[in-house]
């Protein structure tokens, strides 16, 4: 089973610049979590703090009873062996070819024979679609390949905790989905705890069990995926839709004057960006058929059911809805049984398979409502 | 690796902190030298690399250096009427002072800058972070072999500079200034003594250590992107030079106190 990571009250600043304050979250063992947030909110800094590369001023980060923030050098090196980390740019060793890069952790930390090392390295390179490139130097391959090679190196020791910084940057959408599939397959095989930092909304909506978001120097929320995906929080909605209207600006956050000015602009018909109205909880990606069942997902269902009552109503509905009838029966809940929340119409219960249509339906509604207003793109679309 | 942000600011605190961190790295390196496993391959590769970038310039610099010493001393000593001491004086000057300094300047300028650029590039590409995260100490793995290599090369180069310098001095004195070969050679041992050779080599090793540690320190802490690496290389050479002159002065003063000059 993967290790649990408990972060409590972590605070980090560089000199006078505060990056984030009081971040508290628990990465449940064996589950896949994702961390979202606008550029520059310190997601990479957070990952680096979790592995002790940066020292936060306050707070704790407990892994197997060791506090990464305050432990001794020796403990730190020991604990780091539990980690597999994929850095934002792959961070391959430039002087070694891909094969030696991936073999590096094995040669450093295990007494495996060279033939065994070879078997494992080729297997991991194959897994990440890099066979044939093992003699190339990192300078001679594309950014996406570097990323995948970095992932192969992170996986080679079968780590208990895997931290991934933006797996999607530099990858095309198809490869991003393959990588997501790979994460879930690896997770089902070795039951490692994942934390994925990403800007990719598709990935964020379909891969993780839990989602958190950093904004305004704080962790806005962290919890089961349904909570963030059904959230009505303006920041979250704006981020998921990739639109300009909302609290997130080009430089971190907007003041109220800018926001009002922009609001007027959007009302006057300026396109706020974003293609479709992203809402609702799409079904989660599953491990490839033939892979073992994800233990983390099973534990997660138990965990989520035990905290169900504390979650927002919309999230509750969506969780219950996503369960099979047997599971619903097992936990003694049923989909239609809950009254709709009073403040706003909840997404009405619908069968899982009808998901694609649902989004289309929503999109149509929205476009009809918006078309007359949004001059530039609307008229263009009309003409073509 | 990062300084706590809560430290109070006072004038010069930045410089003090940098100095402290430099010393801390120096200590870490010394401790690392005795830790197993020793990175033999990296050490040999780096020694070879540093030697290859320094040998030729060193040889080229040390010939005129020996000549310069011989010429300057030659004309001065001839006026004093002590021609028979020319050999002695130039050997002393070259072995005790010139050789370690020339060596150090070259190890810092050619070897140190290469080390700094290499480690700096690895730092900004996050290779160092990646290595630390893989549970491998970058100091142990990268810095220690480089510092040892620069010490070894400094030691060897020092010998080379001494020999070439003395030969150069001999050539200029005997061939160009009409000195007598026998007198030049015979006076070698008049002023110079064996401890002079020792201190020369000890200095060279210490200078090699300083050059390596400063280069590694600046390389591990570049300020922001690739431009920072360029600045770091530049600074590492300047800092090393300054440190070397200070350390050389101290070592020479201490040496002259401990080992009395021959004949006095
Ligand atoms: N070593 C450092 N020294 C000083 N400031 C830093 C350092 N590293 C990061 N920062 C600052 O911390 C902030 C967060 O950086 P970080 O790289 O974590 O952003 P991010 O959320 O990962 O963004 P992105 O999504 O673009 O990767 C930035 O404002 C950056 O200027
Ligand atoms: Mg980042």
UniProtKB/TrEMBL annotation, chain A:
It comes from Labedaea rhizosphaerae. Residues 5-241 form the ABC transporter domain. This is Phospholipid/cholesterol/gamma-HCH transport system ATP-binding protein. CDD domains: ABC_Org_Solvent_Resistant. The keyword Lipoprotein does not apply. Coiled coil: none annotated. The keyword Nucleotide-binding applies. Residues 280-300, 325-384 are annotated as: Disordered. One of its GO terms (molecular function) is ATP hydrolysis activity. InterPro entries: AAA+_ATPase, ABC_transporter-like_ATP-bd, ABC_transporter-like_CS, P-loop_NTPase.
UniProtKB/TrEMBL annotation, chain B:
Keywords: Membrane, Transmembrane, Transmembrane helix. GO terms for molecular function: phospholipid transporter activity. It comes from the Bacteria. One of its GO terms (cellular component) is ATP-binding cassette (ABC) transporter complex. The chain crosses the membrane at residues 48-70, 147-172, 197-217, 237-258. The keyword Glycosyltransferase does not apply. The keyword Transmembrane helix applies. This is Phospholipid/cholesterol/gamma-HCH transport system permease protein. It comes from Labedaea rhizosphaerae.
């Amino acid at each position: 089973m993967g290790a649990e990571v408990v972060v409590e009250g972590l605070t980090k600043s560089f000199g006078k610049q505060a990056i984030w304050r009081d971040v508290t979250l628990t990465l449940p063992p064996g589950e896949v979590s994702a961390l979202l947030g606008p550029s520059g909110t310190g997601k990479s800094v957070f990952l680096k703090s979790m592995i002790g590369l940066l020292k936060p001023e306050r707070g704790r980060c407990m892994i197997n009873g060791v506090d990464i923030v305050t432990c001794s050098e020796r403990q730190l090196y020991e604990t780091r062996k539990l980690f597999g980390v994929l850095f934002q740019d792959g961070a391959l060793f430039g002087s070694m070819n891909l094969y030696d890069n991936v073999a590096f952790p094995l040669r450093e930390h295990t007494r495996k024979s060279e033939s065994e090392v070879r078997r494992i390295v080729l297997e991991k390179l194959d897994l990440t679609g890099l066979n044939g490139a093992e003699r190339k130097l990192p300078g001679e391959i594309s950014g996406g390949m570097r990323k995948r090679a970095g992932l192969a190196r992170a996986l080679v020791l079968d780590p208990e905790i895997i931290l991934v910084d933006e797996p999607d940057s530099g990858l095309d959408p198809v490869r991003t989905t393959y990588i997501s599939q790979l994460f879930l397959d690896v997770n089902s095989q070795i039951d490692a705890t994942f934390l994925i930092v990403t800007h990719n909304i598709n990935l964020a909506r379909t891969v993780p069990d839990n989602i958190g978001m950093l904004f305004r120097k704080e962790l806005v929320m962290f919890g089961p995926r349904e909570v963030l995906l059904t959230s009505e929080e303006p920041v979250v909605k704006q981020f998921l839709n990739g639109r300009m209207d909302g609290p997130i600006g080009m430089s971190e956050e907007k003041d109220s004057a800018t926001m009002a000015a922009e609001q007027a602009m959007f009302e006057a018909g300026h396109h706020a960006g974003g293609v479709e109205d992203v809402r609702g909880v799409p079904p989660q990606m599953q491990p490839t058929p033939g892979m073992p069942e994800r233990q983390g997902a099973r534990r997660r269902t138990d965990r989520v059911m035990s905290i169900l009552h504390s979650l927002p109503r919309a999230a509750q509905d969506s969780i219950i809805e996503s369960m099979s009838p047997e599971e619903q029966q097992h936990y003694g809940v049923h989909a239609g049984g809950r009254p709709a929340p009073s403040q706003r119409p909840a997404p009405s219960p619908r069968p899982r398979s009808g998901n694609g249509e649902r989004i289309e339906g929503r999109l149509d509604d929205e476009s009809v409502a918006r078309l007359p207003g949004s001059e530039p793109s609307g008229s263009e679309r009309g003409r073509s | 690796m990062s300084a706590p942000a809560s430290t109070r600011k006072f004038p010069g605190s930045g410089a003090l902190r940098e100095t402290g961190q430099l010393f801390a790295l120096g200590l870490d390196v010394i401790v690392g030298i005795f830790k197993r496993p020793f990175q033999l391959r990296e050490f040999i590769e780096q020694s070879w690399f540093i030697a290859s970038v320094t040998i030729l310039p060193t040889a080229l610099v040390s010939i005129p250096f020996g000549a310069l010493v011989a010429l300057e001393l030659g004309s001065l000593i001839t006026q004093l009427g002590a021609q028979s001491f020319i050999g002695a004086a130039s050997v002393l000057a070259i072995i005790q002072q010139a050789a370690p300094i020339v060596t150090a300047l070259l190890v810092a300028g050619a070897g140190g800058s290469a080390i700094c650029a290499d480690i700096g590039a690895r730092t900004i590409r996050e290779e160092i972070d990646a290595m630390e995260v893989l549970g491998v100490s970058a100091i142990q793995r990268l810095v220690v072999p480089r510092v040892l290599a620069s010490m070894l090369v400094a030691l060897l180069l020092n010998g080379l500079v001494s020999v070439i310098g003395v030969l150069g001095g001999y050539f200029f004195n005997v061939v160009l200034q009409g000195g007598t070969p026998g007198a030049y050679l015979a006076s070698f041992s008049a002023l110079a003594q064996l401890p002079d050779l020792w201190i020369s080599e000890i200095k060279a090793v210490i200078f090699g250590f300083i050059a390596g540690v400063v280069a590694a320190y600046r390389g591990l802490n570049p300020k922001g992107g690739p431009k920072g690496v360029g600045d770091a290389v530049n600074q590492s050479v300047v800092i090393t030079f300054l440190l070397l002159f200070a350390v050389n002065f101290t070592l020479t003063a201490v040496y002259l106190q401990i080992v009395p000059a021959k004949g006095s």
